[in-house]
Design a protein that fits this description.
By secondary structure, the protein is of the alpha+beta class. The protein has three helices and six strands, in the order βββααββαβ. Strand 2 and strand 3 form a beta hairpin. The longest helix is centred in the middle third of the chain and has 7 residues.
């Protein structure tokens, strides 16, 4: 606990509830759970000019087909709609159980032109990994940190 200027102890900050957290314990009637993508995959981000390149790599090969089915160009476009990408391209890499996402026009002109705090777009992988996906409960053991 921290102390305020008046010397009284401040209450500890409360964690925000995760709207997807309960779904791991309660699969729906079809035996499917909904989790954020980061439970099923990890990512890395790079940039070149006004283009962001995000890799999405399944934590386990068994999860790859689920990712391919749900992390589509349409789903990615919806997640990044506020950044107004001019084009979204998804390249599948099945031998690596991964995909490479290329987002054009999302870096406000690129590193030298952008006035935002994340001109390299490194935080964009976190935005992508926040997409909710539906995973068969039988694959739940392959998820990370559920």
């Amino acid at each position: 606990m921290s102390t305020s200027d008046s010397g009284r102890r401040a209450a500890p900050p409360q964690a925000r509830p995760d709207p997807l957290a309960g779904s791991l314990v309660d699969p729906d009637e079809r035996g499917v759970i909904t989790v954020a993508l980061y439970h099923a995959a990890h990512g890395r981000t790079g940039d070149k000019g006004d283009r962001s390149n995000i890799s999405v790599i399944a934590w386990h090969p068994a999860l790859y087909d689920t990712l391919v089915e749900q992390v589509t160009e349409a789903a990615i476009s919806a997640q990044f709609a506020h950044r107004r990408p001019t084009r979204v391209t998804r390249h599948l890499l099945p031998r690596l159980h991964a995909m490479n996402i290329v987002l054009d026009g999302v870096l406000d002109g690129g590193v030298n032109d952008a006035l935002n705090l994340d001109s390299h777009g490194k935080a964009l992988s976190f935005l992508l990994l926040d997409i909710p996906i539906r995973v068969p409960a039988a694959l739940a053991a392959h998820l990370k940190n559920p």
